[in-house]
Amino acid sequence: MKVAILGYGTVGSGVFEVINSNPAGIARRAGEEVTVKYVLDLRDFPGDPVESVLVHDFAKIVDDPEVGVVVEVMGGVEPAYTFVKEALLKGKSVCTSNKELVAKHGAELLEIAKQKKENFLFEASVGGGIPIIRPLNQSLTVDEIQEITGILNGTTNYILTKMREEGLDFDTVLADAQAKGYAERNPEADVEGYDAGRKIAILTSLAYGMQVDYEDIYTEGITKITKDDIAYALTAGADIKLFGTSRAVDGQVYAMVAPRMIDKSHPLYAVNDVFNAVLVRGNFLGDVMFYGKGAGKLPTASAVVSDVVDAVKHQGKHVMTLWNSRKLKLADMNTLVNKFFVRVPENEKEKANCLFSVEREFTAEDVKGQYAFLTAPMAEGDFHAAAEQLTVLNYIRAELA
Ligand code: HSE
Question: What is the CATH number of the domain that holds 79?
C-alpha cells in the first residue's frame, strides 16, 4: 500500500516517522507493506529525510492510482476539505486528525466514502492518541449513550492545573504557557472552548448518528476563571476543569462546553496537565473512561497510523459509521438542571439567600469581601433570571456531593 501525507507539520512529520520506524510491525497488522510515496507541503525541507518524497502539487497524489490511502494532517477546513473530497471521489481512503474538517463535513465525507466502498477515518481528531472514535463506532454499539463528558483540550487543562498548583491568575499562566510553547500564540480556540466544542460535536454526532453543529453548542471557555474561584474550590476539596459534555435527558440531547467544579468523587478529577480523558456512560455498561495524551506529535501520529492500518485492512469495504447529515436539534439549555457555585460581593449575602436555595457556603482564607455559595439543583433559565438581580462576580456549574 502506498500512502500520501498531506502536510509536513508536527503531526505529518510524526506520521512519517511512525510509519518508517516500525514497517514490519505495521505490515504484520495491516496485512501488507505500507510505505509513504508522497508528502505534500508548500515548504521545502533541505536535509530532511522527507526530501525524497516531497511534492508541492496535490494533483500528483490524487492522480496516482498507486496511492490507496491519503493522510490529511494539514488542519483547517480549506484546502483540506477540497483535497479530502477529491481523494475520496477518486476511490482512496482518507485518515485525518483534523477536527475542524471532521466537525464541519464529517457526515458528507463519510457518505462519499460509503458510496466509494472506502473509508474516512478520524481517530486522532478527538483526544489525540486516545482511542475513542473506534470504541464509539465499533465497541459501544449496544448501549444507549446517556452521557459523554470529556476533558478534550490539553492547553486549558494545563492552564487550570498550573493555576491550582501555583495559585496564579489565568493571564499569568497563559503567558507562561505561551512562552514555553505549550499554548498557541493565538490561544482563542483553546481558551474560549471552541476546540473542545468541535470535539464534543464529533463525539455527540457519532453517539446519536446525526449531525451536531458546533455552532449550536453552548460554549464557555476558561478566561473568566480566577484564582479566587480556585481558592474556594480547593478549600472545599474540589477542582475546576473544562468539560465538553453531551447528555441525553428524556429523549433530548443537551450539549455544552463549560468549566465545571468537581470533587474527588468525579471520575475525571485526577486528569491533570495536558492529559485528556473521556467518560462515556451507557445504559447497560455504566461508566467507561478513556485517558491519555490528547495532543503532541507522536501520540497523535500513533492514532493516525492506526487508522491507516484499518484502512489497509478494509480496502474495498466500508466500515459502517452511524453519522448522517440530518441535524440533531439540541435541547434548550435553559431547561438543563445544574448546581451552581456563585461568588458575589459580601454585602449581597442576604439578597443571595433570598434569591437562591443555598446548599452550602464556601470559605477561602485569602479571599476577602466575598460571599461564595452553592445553589441547590436548578434550571439554567431560573439561575440566570435570579443571577441578574445580583452582582455576580463569577459562577461555575458544579457537581459536588
Ligand atoms: N490545541 C489542542 C489542545 C490540540 O490543546 O488540546 C489538540 O487538538
Answer: 3.40.50.720
What is the longest distance spanned by two Cα atoms in the chain?
A: 74
Pocket of ligand 1 (CB under 6 A): 128, 153-155, 190, 195, 294-295
Q: Which amino acid is at 59?
A: A
187, 258: one domain:
yes
Q: Which numbered atom of ligand 1 lies nearest the CA of 153? A: 6
**Which tens digit of pLDDT belongs to each residue from 88-129?**
999 999 999 999 999 999 999 999 999 999 999 999 999 999
**Per-residue pLDDT for 180 more than 90?**
no
As given in the structure block, the three cell numbers for residue 10 are: 508536527
Q: How far is CA 102 from the centre of its chain?
A: 12
Mean pLDDT of the chain: 97
- The verdict on whether 199 is a catalytic residue reads yes
Residues 151 and 218 in one domain: yes
Name which of 212, 179, 214 is nearest 194 in CA terms: 214
Average pLDDT over residues 205-225: 97
Percent with pLDDT over 70 in the chain: 100
Which residue is closest in CA terms to ligand 1's atom 4?
Answer: 295
Domain tally, the chain:
3
Give the structural domain span for 58.
Answer: 2-129+297-326
CA separation, residue 249 to residues 152, 253, 331, 338 (Å)? 22, 6, 9, 13
Could you tell me the three cell numbers for 216?
449550536
Cβ-count burial of 24 within 10 angstroms (0-12 exposed, 13-18 middle, 19+ buried)?
exposed
Which ranges of 236-296 does DSSP label H, i.e. alpha helix? none
pLDDT at 401: 82
Cα(314) to ligand 1 centroid in Å equals 29
Q: Do residues 288 and 144 share a domain?
A: yes
Q: What is the model's pLDDT at position 182? A: 82
pLDDT, tens only, 45-55: 999 999 999 99
Distance, CA 295 to ligand 1 centroid (Å)? 6
CATH number of the domain where residue 268 is located: 3.30.360.10
Q: Tell me the average pLDDT across 270-278.
A: 97
Q: Residue 121: beta bridge partners? A: 95
Ligand 1, atom nearest to 300 Cα: 7
